[in-house]
Design brief:
The chain is an alpha+beta fold. The protein has one domain. It is built from 5 helices and 8 strands. Strands 1, 2, 3, 4, 5, 6, 7 and 8 form an 8-stranded antiparallel beta sheet that branches. The longest helix has 16 residues. 26% of the residues are buried.
Length: 169
């Protein structure tokens, strides 16, 4: 687990809300506090979909557990946009299955993809600061830290690739 403090709040807000840069991530939850607190549970409600729609989702996205950020982002943007900054927000994202498999397939990784429950990224805005916190979860106890190291490095590289300056906090 690594905590990275973003140096320019506006840059991460633009990357997260006004661009497609994080769209391939899955959303566990989003909580936005403005004049009210809005909580979005990113878990897909399977009963909402027809069996054909579920099959299409499974084929297209490989995940029927969470919504993609691309689907939730416009709602969050609507809640946050305006002249006033939000009091706070938190978005918990997960790597899509394809990314988890890609990380597990690297030679440095000593953990099978099916043992990785999630690779998470929590983005929090509070008191004018944005912090990104990485995390990993497994289906069983794992002593090996190669997945943590690779996930942390991936997020650092991703943020740098988006032109976002950060420092370890």
């Amino acid at each position: 687990m690594t905590a990275l403090e973003l140096k320019v709040t506006k840059s991460i807000m633009n990357s997260l809300l006004a661009s497609e840069q994080f769209d391939s991530f899955l959303v566990e939850e989003a909580t936005i506090t403005t004049y009210n607190t809005f909580h979005i549970d990113g878990h897909l409600i399977r009963d909402f979909y027809t069996s054909e729609e579920l099959e299409e989702i499974e084929q297209k996205k490989k995940s029927t557990l969470f919504s993609y950020w691309s689907d939730i982002r416009p709602i969050c943007f609507q809640l946050i946009k305006g002249k006033k900054t939000p009091v706070s927000f938190k978005v918990v994202l997960h790597a899509a299955p394809e990314l988890t498999e890609k990380i597990a397939a690297t030679p440095e990784c000593q953990v099978a993809a099916n043992l990785i429950r999630s690779l998470a990224l929590s983005i929090r805005y509070d008191k004018g600061k944005v912090t990104c916190i990485t995390g990993t979860a497994f289906t069983t106890f794992i002593m090996d830290k190669s997945v943590d190291t690779l996930w942390d490095a991936y997020i650092r590289q991703l943020l740098s690739g988006f032109g976002l300056d950060f420092e370890e906090s």
